């Protein structure tokens, strides 16, 4: 065991020399919450923040090709807005947090190196309030800010270090080309499995509870959120206090009566006013339910449940149930029912980008691209930062054959969201190709492949683009991209070889 730890330290020391520190999001300086257990300084970990972030970047880029990775713009944008709101009150002076959805009906959340956090759709669906989701997320963010993941990676037994080496080996295989998809998926799955194997110590869990509680209350969420979610799961027949009752989250985040009591005592010291969930929470929760409902027997059960909620509940919660029914009907091409449910969703609530997104999507599904464009364009003037609306507007323009206009619009959206939505680059590539700009289309597709971790494919696209143009200035720009990508691939190979050896 000692020999393994020493070799890991030597590897890390070598890798640190090869990796430059990325820019980090700066959070306001805040006082450390009182009563934290002493588990050492966050800077005491062997795995430097720069190296941890570099490894996380490699894993998540490949993970975007995994079939369980949620690409839905509304879910991921909502989760990241929540993470930004919480992280603003993190005790760490510098924290990078990037949250993504995972298509899985089970209650779970996990963290990858570098501040990447996966939230299962099942966790969102099982939550009865926005603060419950925020509570779990705050707890996960606390594991990131307190560097529990980095410590766990450098202090585990030999089997976990072998698992980490297998992640690096899979990413190296993808970097070499030829097996991009299979290796990327393998690396993402293995990285998530390592998180399940780490198992945080009781002191780490208590520290995450208290740091998370601080963020939750300061960010304006109900401070009872985390303990309410835990209490609900504790009462589940599938869960017991030992953490062996079939719930993956609690097998890695051991819960105890002491932790529950501590959280309850802290909430009693605060104002007991309730914090209503935002309208966005109910719409995103319904969207998550639709995405994870794929089996035929599940569809019938979920439709009955949503129809009951639509008749029984009020406000945005009722509207979200009808909106989910509209989406499910649209998936089955039952467009008359989808329109009727959409009309029900509009009743008794204020205007919403989620409702307008479904209206535009429904028009597009019925090959009425002109109507979809009109709806999306009007809605974007009111909610200009709603990415799902931007994607639909681009698809509507493409379907109408207005490819040059679509390309110009997509370039504007990419300036706003340069790394959040790889699909924008993919759409841009298609529209550039259809507007007779093949070299620029290959460059856009290269950007898509870079964001999804397929660097050899990106290199191939750039080399094709180079051959398609005789313009000296365009060739010079492509040459610069190729050199930059070659340098990045060499650096990533150096990092991964240190981990995999």
Radius of gyration: 24 Å
Q: Kindly report the spatial arrangement of strands forming the biggest sheet.
A: 1-3-2
What is the mean predicted local confidence, pLDDT? 81
H/E element string?
HHHEEEHHHHHHHHHHHHHHHHHHHHH
Helix content: 55-70%
- Could you say how many structural domains there are in total? 3
* Sheet having the most strands: 3 strands, mixed
Contiguous uncertain segments of 5+ residues: 1-45, 237-246
Bulk shape: flat
Task: Find the count of extended strands (DSSP E, 2+ residues).
Answer: 3
First CA to last CA: what distance?
17 Å
Tally of alpha and pi helices: 24
Beta-strand residue fraction: under 5%
* Overall SS class: mainly alpha
SSE inventory with pairings:
Elements: H1 2-16, H2 49-63, H3 73-87, E1 98-102, E2 109-112, E3 116-120, H4 121-126, H5 130-145, H6 148-154, H7 158-176, H8 180-198, H9 202-218, H10 225-234, H11 248-252, H12 257-268, H13 279-292, H14 296-312, H15 315-331, H16 335-346, H17 353-365, H18 369-382, H19 387-399, H20 403-416, H21 422-434, H22 438-451, H23 455-468, H24 472-500
Parallel strand pairs: 1-3
Antiparallel strand pairs: 2-3
Provide structural commentary:
The structure is a single chain. The chain has 501 residues and is an all-alpha fold. It folds into 3 domains: 2-20 and 43-268, no CATH class; 278-347, no CATH class; 420-501, Methane Monooxygenase Hydroxylase, Chain G, domain 1. The protein has helices at 2-16, 49-63, 73-87, 121-126, 130-145, 148-154, 158-176, 180-198, 202-218, 225-234, 248-252, 257-268, 279-292, 296-312, 315-331, 335-346, 353-365, 369-382, 387-399, 403-416, 422-434, 438-451, 455-468, 472-500, and strands at residues 98-102, 109-112, 116-120. It has a 3-stranded mixed β-sheet with strand order 1-3-2. Helix 5 crosses helix 10 (225-234), helix 17 packs antiparallel against helix 18 (369-382) and helix 20 packs antiparallel against helix 21 (422-434). The longest helix is centred in the C-terminal third of the chain and has 29 residues, at 472-500. The protein is flat and about 65 Å long.
